[in-house]
């Protein structure tokens, strides 16, 4: 585990074995899992330790290094638990995957790429991967704990976000994407399901399974979620980092409207609408937000609004003074 020096690290509250943490050996005990996950939904009472100094660099981690808390969720390839590093008290999320499943579904390569990419990233709006370890049958990822959970769930619960919240999220995501693009990484799978929310309400971009280091020639691999696919991928043309700009436009729309713009019951119909950029923005969407959506959802990738101009877009400029100050917004100093 690289030194977890990020200001987003969190330390468990004081006291012996608090928050329902148990021995790490219980992590694969299905019965206790069920018991824990059906228990309290509240996050463990944890205290953010901002600017905490470097801790235990180059330590060798194993399952014994952690006390395992409640199950945070379940993905296609594993379960995620809240965990506390016994030595330091730091709280993280521990993702547990069965090796045989990764092999069975032929996702080892994708998984290795995800680890390689994510462990080298340092940005307040990108979920940190502190390290990984394995035993004979499982692989464990030590991830930053996103205390407010999944963006997707929050959005579905609220229906849609107001301009203030949506603009703050979009500005944070634009900053994270801009950081990735400067490192020649395309995310390629931006959608609410791949966004988590940190303890202070800040966006955490996660899931780098589809990401690629931009190659010299552009790629044609078909990937990503249907609703977020750009015209060039629907039309099986080459694509580059500008696919993320299109996805940001789709996301802006979904945040403000509650569903993605080209959604149709049949795949073919969705493809068609994407290819034609058949965009209908409801009248309740503000003029400024609609302008940004249209500028991002351009059929021609070169015409899409550049990420570095997003903080100066009128929608962001208008709403920035209303953002709650504690939620990790990417404020401009000028
Ligand atoms: N770092 C984290 N902090 C808090 N909760 C998390 C964290 N990582 C995952 N979770 C929770 O666990 C669930 C499962 O996560 P996981 O990454 O395994 O799968 P996923 O991203 O939902 O799906 P997929 O299997 O397609 O990658 C998430 O939906 C989320 O609710």
UniProtKB/TrEMBL annotation:
It is an enzyme of class 2 (transferase). ATP binds at residues 76, 95, 144-146, 193-194, 207. Gene3D superfamilies: Transferase(Phosphotransferase) domain 1. The keyword Transferase applies. It comes from Lipomyces tetrasporus. The active site is at 189 (proton acceptor). It is found in: Chromosome, Centromere, Kinetochore. There is a cross-link at residue 191 (Glycyl lysine isopeptide (Lys-Gly) (interchain with G-Cter in SUMO2)). Residues 1-25 are annotated as: Disordered. GO terms for biological process: attachment of spindle microtubules to kinetochore; homologous chromosome segregation; meiotic spindle checkpoint signaling; regulation of cytokinesis; regulation of mitotic cell cycle spindle assembly checkpoint; regulation of organelle assembly; response to mitotic cell cycle spindle assembly checkpoint signaling; sister chromatid segregation. The keyword Repeat does not apply. Keywords: ATP-binding, Centromere, Chromosome partition, Kinase, Kinetochore, Nucleotide-binding, Serine/threonine-protein kinase, Transferase. SMART domains: S_TKc. Residues 66-316 form the Protein kinase domain. PANTHER family: SERINE/THREONINE-PROTEIN KINASE IAL-RELATED. It catalyses: L-seryl-[protein] + ATP = O-phospho-L-seryl-[protein] + ADP + H(+); L-threonyl-[protein] + ATP = O-phospho-L-threonyl-[protein] + ADP + H(+). Its EC number is 2.7.11.1. Belongs to the protein kinase superfamily. Ser/Thr protein kinase family. Aurora subfamily. It holds the Pfam family Pkinase. Coiled coil: none annotated. This is Aurora kinase. InterPro entries: Aur-like, Kinase-like_dom_sf, Prot_kinase_dom, Protein_kinase_ATP_BS, Ser/Thr_kinase_AS. One of its GO terms (cellular component) is spindle midzone. GO terms for molecular function: ATP binding; protein serine/threonine kinase activity.
